[in-house]
Amino acid sequence: MPGAFITFEGGEGAGKSTQIERLRRRLEAQGHSVLVTREPGGSERAERIREFLLSGRAKALGTFAETILFSAARLDHLEKTIRPALAAGRIVLSDRFSDSTRAYQGAAGALEPDLLDAVERVVLAGTEPVLTLILDLPESIGMSRAVDRRGDARADRFEGEGAAFHAALRQAFLDVAKAAPQRCAVIDGSRDPDTVEKEIWDVVRTRLPDLAAPREHVAHG
Ligand code: TYD
Q: How far does the centroid of ligand 1 lie from the alpha carbon of residue 158, in Å?
């Protein structure tokens, strides 16, 4: 039985980690084997690239270089972690994936859409999410949540960007959803976590009924 690849996207402080954990529990309760992973990262090499990117040292190299680094990390993540899990019939939940490059480096970083399309095609090589949950919320709420969560630690590379960047980012994710409505669902992330969890489960049940049904009831092969 083939696995399913689901991604979570959104700006800073949108509540992705909380909701990924809740969806994982629900899917496991249906008897699925679930792998939770994240980007940048999710494999040994990709985690090393992550450190470099989030330290802010890649910023001086420009948006194109950052795009290539995120993409190199993604290529390894796909090869070492995502594809093997899908081949084993697992459900993969990724905290961010290629739509983040489109939003952060594309719209907000002003990189050409054609160039992003080309890089994405090469890197994904056909491994696309079957569902992308975009947690949307006003950037002011997201940023204040991110500040609370961080405490005394320093803002990372992208948390340190200004309000205009985060507003462009929000719009970019909404544009991604508009361009790929079959794959994407926009979820209002400003509500309380229980309400958001329930809406996400409704989307999963509607769009991927096989996953939401208990596994022993799923027809095999
Ligand atoms: P992380 O601490 O995982 O942030 P979050 O909790 O918001 O997911 O840091 C990942 C950062 O990298 C985040 O600011 C988004 C950014 N990013 C990109 O700019 N491009 C990408 O392709 C990816 C995957 C992430």
A: 7
